[in-house]
Amino acid sequence: MLLLARVRGSVKLHIYMNRGAIRLKSAAGPARTGTISTNLPEETLALGRRLGAIIPFGSTLSIEGRLGAGKTVLVKGIAAGLGIEAEILSPTFILVEEYRGGDVPLLHYDLYRLEELGEVERIGMFDAVDGRNIVVVEWGDRLPEGTMEFDVTISIRIAGRDERDVEISASPAIIYALEGWKEGA
Fold first, then answer.
1. Is the dihedral of CA 110, 116, 117, 121 positive or negative?
2. 64-70 contacts: CB < 8 A, separation 24 or more?
3. What is the DSSP string of 23-56?
4. Among 170, 179, 167, 184, which Cα is nearest to 71's?
5. Where are the chain's structural domains?
6. Architecture of 29-184 per CATH?
7. Span 58-79, mean pLDDT?
């Protein structure tokens, strides 16, 4: 149900209510970049939960960062924001996990062990981008440039023992919808 359309600057935000959360209807628009700092894994989880609650259905996300940066923690939050209650595990060794039971299926890919592009085709990642799923790709930067266009690109940088700088490149609607994420966590 479309709840509200508002204009912020030159960006029109279409949002609708879904299980009590305000979800964007579209991720369209030129990419903007913003950086959010988290101080604990629980804050990274909360940021992911907020993103999962507002991300438009059919979106594709690339999550990048060193080992131990918090990519899977962020995905756990995204899943929670989608209403998925299953335990979220890193699919490093099997390349993909599919989660149902929330607002929309979440397909979680991990390309850390990717050796050739044909592996991605074999596990159906390109076919999963069909507008009916949320597709999250850890290590999406391992894909050859131009192979896949992501709606949201997230780069997590370790800034301290528990501190992370989370750079998000997405449409202005998503960047604006994440404003005040700590207050809504």
1. negative
2. 64/138, 64/139, 64/140, 64/141, 64/153, 64/154, 64/155, 64/156, 65/155, 65/156, 65/157, 65/158, 66/158, 68/158, 69/156, 69/157, 69/158, 69/164, 70/38, 70/41, 70/44, 70/156, 70/164
3. EES---S--EEEEEEESSHHHHHHHHHHHHHHSP
4. 167
5. 29-184
6. 3-Layer(aba) Sandwich (3.40)
7. 96
3-state DSSP: the chain helix, strand, coil percent, rounded to 5?
A: 25, 30, 40
Instruction: Count Cβ atoms below 10 Å from residue 118 Cβ, excluding itself.
Output: 9
Interhelix angle 71-81/41-54, rounded to 10 degrees, is 40
Q: What is the DSSP letter of 142?
A: G
CA distance 8 to 18: 22
Average pLDDT over residues 149-174: 94
Cα separation, 80 vs 32, in Å, equals: 25
The encoded tokens of residue 108 equal 């979680």
pTM of the model: 0.85
Give the mean pLDDT of 134-147. Answer: 92
66-98 burial code (b ≥16 CB/10 A, e <16):
eeebbbbbbbbbbbbbbbbeeebebbeeebbbe
